[in-house]
Amino acid sequence: MRPDFSQYPFLVAWEMTHACLMACKHCRASAEKNPLLGELSTEQGKQLLDELATYTPRPLVLMTGGDPLQREDVFELLEHARTLDLKIGFTPAASVALTRDAIVKLKEAGVTRLALSLDAASAELHDAFRGEPGTFDRTIQALEWAREIGLPTQINTTVTRNNSEDIKQLPALLEEKGVVLWSVFYLVPVGRGQILKQLTSHQFEDHLHWLYNLSLTSSFHVKTTEAHHFRRVVMQERAKQAQKDHALAAGESLHQGYFKDGMEHSRIGVSDGNGFVFISCTGNVSPSGFLPLTAGNVKQTSLKEIYQDSLLFRELRQKDLLKGKCGFCEFKQICGGSRARAWAETGDHMAAEPRCSYVPPAFLNRAGARGPRVEG
């Protein structure tokens, strides 16, 4: 049975602060060195964590930023989350604040996974992307420290037109460092990321097929962010294999609620506003950090009420409201396209995914024999 995310989210991302010592070219938050006025106080942060602990099932909580290590009360908040038995992922910046002592303290405070960023297999390209020399080496050192103390790690990678080929060298490094999950984010042009180039729809398709093939043999799990049509690629590839070996139909894994063959973490149906929710440093609630439409603020309204009842979130959970070819697509219930990218490129969060080359037969028939023009 497909999971129902209409009541509670599967993953909650909390942007703990706007402050960050780095200036990455693609930063969604356009983070700066100082925190914003009105960031959630320690008490407000604890109240938020208290609420999350009442959800059934309890969500995974991702503490992000900016750089969450820049919050003076970060370890107090982590300790509070630990007393509530919340599972916490933590995404620090690879700044001078990310010391071995800090990583040890994070584990002691209950962090269950450390998420770091690598956007290239070479220091030169990664450091240029991150806007500061030495970030590649600091990230590698942090991975090694985390491995020494038994703290699981994941790597987040942002894919643009400039680094899409270089990152194909990353898997060997991830294997070497014992990473458990590679989260591959396909650029959405928001924040400072507006100046960077995305893949074309056809480059996107080729890259997703490469990623699928990698997932079959890698020691780490693979997931995508803002590339929901990866699920369609997986289903198509599994259907081909099922026909070849007369195994169970690919659709069976769909109804189980997840993909196998290295794809357990690509939970079907989790998308912006549907299983995922983002809370900004000032308490604004959005479907995603890359879809900065505000549905409410946790300072005035409970997260549960915003998530369950706001028009924006309810729209995003109704796949029948999707427009263009996404609305006709036979994969819309497991995919639905990136609502963040649709909004960033068209101004309409329910528009068709702009970077998908697949044309659904139902849409092709409706459009006429010549078919629609697909942007690429």
Description:
- The protein is of the alpha/beta class.
- The protein has a single domain (11-286), classed as Alpha-Beta Barrel (TIM Barrel), CATH 3.20.20.
- The protein contains 14 helices and eleven strands.
- Strand 2 (60-64), helix 2 and strand 3 (88-90) form a beta-alpha-beta unit.
- Helix 1 runs parallel beside helix 2 (74-83), helix 3 packs across helix 5 and helix 7 (201-215) packs across helix 8 (229-245).
- The longest helix has 17 residues, at 229-245.
Characteristic terms for this protein:
TIM Barrel, single chain, 13% strand, alpha/beta, 376 residues, 14 helices, globular, eleven-stranded mixed beta sheet, metal ion binding, Radical SAM protein
Concise structural overview:
The protein has 376 residues and is of the alpha/beta class. It has helices at residues 42-52, 74-83, 100-108, 123-130, 135-149, 170-177, 201-215, 229-245, 250-256, 303-309, 311-316, 324-328, 339-346, 361-367, and strands at residues 11-15, 60-64, 88-90, 111-117, 153-159, 181-186, 221-225, 271-272, 275-279, 284-286, 296-297. Strands 1, 2, 3, 4, 5, 6, 7, 8, 9, 10 and 11 form an eleven-stranded mixed sheet that branches.
